């Protein structure tokens, strides 16, 4: 967590340094990108929609500065899960970081933890709501690529074997995720 906070602080410092002493309009860019960084680095899996989080002017600033936005998203996805990063990628159709998003999708996850008494009910247990980060990544990948997930994410043999092995290991903590992702990818 300390590494994450240090990285987020560094990103914000770089933006403030780059835009120090510039005109008011350029300061708006730094402020808006800093707000986006906060959205991207949030570890919460519940985010308000992009359109409700950012004003029309802020969305225009982000649209006009995709390099800054992509840089923050790439850094965040390299360090942690980033629902906000995935949401912004989908909103703006940013495809530069698809490989980072794909990586996060294929990292085994666990169920949200609200299985309760219906753990034997496969339809509910393997619903997208159980995989709160991964299900947002699925939507973002499909939106950004314009393809269904099974076409957007072509697995290597090694990745297929890994998923198959986890799906066949009921005692492994990622067993259920492997079944869920197998279904999403049509394996």
Average predicted local confidence, pLDDT: 83
* Main sheet characteristics: none
Cα gyration radius (Å) = 18 Å
SSE topology string: HHHHHHHHHHHH
Q: Kindly report how far apart the N and C termini lie.
A: 35 Å
**Structure annotation, total helices:** 12
Helix fraction, binned, reads 55-70%
Integer tally of domains: 2
The beta-strand count equals 0
Task: Supply the helix-strand structural class.
Answer: mainly alpha
The fraction of residues in strands falls at: under 5%
Note poorly predicted spans.
19-24
Q: What would the principal axes of the Cα set say about the shape?
A: elongated
Structure description:
The protein is mainly α and 187 residues long. The protein has 12 helices and no strands. Helix 5 (66-79) runs antiparallel to helix 6 (83-92) and helix 7 runs antiparallel to helix 9 (132-145).
Write the layout of secondary structure elements.
Blueprint: H1 2-18, H2 24-41, H3 50-53, H4 56-64, H5 66-79, H6 83-92, H7 98-106, H8 122-125, H9 132-145, H10 149-152, H11 157-167, H12 175-185
Summarize the structure.
With 187 residues, the protein is mainly α. The protein is 67% helix and 0% strand. Residues 19-24 have low confidence and may be disordered.
């Amino acid at each position: 967590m300390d590494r994450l906070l240090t990285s987020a602080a560094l990103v914000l410092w770089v933006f403030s340094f780059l835009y120090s002493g510039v005109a008011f309009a350029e300061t708006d860019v730094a402020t808006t990108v800093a707000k986006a960084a906060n959205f991207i680095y949030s570890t919460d899996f519940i985010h308000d929609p992009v359109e409700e989080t950012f004003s029309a002017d802020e969305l225009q600033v982000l649209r006009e500065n995709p390099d800054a936005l992509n840089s923050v998203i790439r850094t965040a996805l390299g360090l942690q899960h980033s629902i906000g990063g995935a949401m912004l990628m989908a909103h703006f159709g940013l495809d530069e970081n698809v490989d980072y998003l794909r990586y996060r999708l294929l990292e085994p996850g666990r169920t949200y933890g609200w299985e309760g008494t219906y753990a034997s009910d496969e339809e509910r247990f393997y619903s997208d709501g159980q995989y709160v980060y991964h299900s947002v990544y699925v939507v973002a990948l499909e939106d950004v690529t314009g393809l269904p997930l099974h076409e957007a994410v072509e697995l290597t043999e090694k990745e297929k074997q890994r998923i198959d092995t986890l799906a066949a290991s009921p005692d492994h903590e990622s067993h259920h995720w492997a079944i869920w992702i197998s279904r999403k990818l049509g394996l």
